[in-house]
Amino acid sequence: MTMVTGLFRNRDDAERGYHAVLERGYEQADVNLVMSDDTRNRWFPGDRQTDTDLGEKVVPTERSEQYEAGIRDGGILMGVKARAEEDARHFAREWQACGAESVHT
What we know:
Alpha-Beta Plaits, alpha+beta, 23% strand, five-stranded mixed β-sheet
């Protein structure tokens, strides 16, 4: 399996990247997110209903040093373990098309 990661600068882009994974037959549990508490509160506030399950994927910020500056600046780091190299290439293309930065496979 290949880990694919990308940094999204806003919720809309992250949503599109997330749905690209789901549309490929992956499940919610296959996706991991890292963001700051400030970003989590801005895009996925706990006191407000959201129309997405993406907010349920939010995890603490201690997972990645490589993306630290982007996360600190309000970015949303998404990662998924691709089951096949073809899937990894597909996610990288789709995420870049969604505006993701620093996409790595």
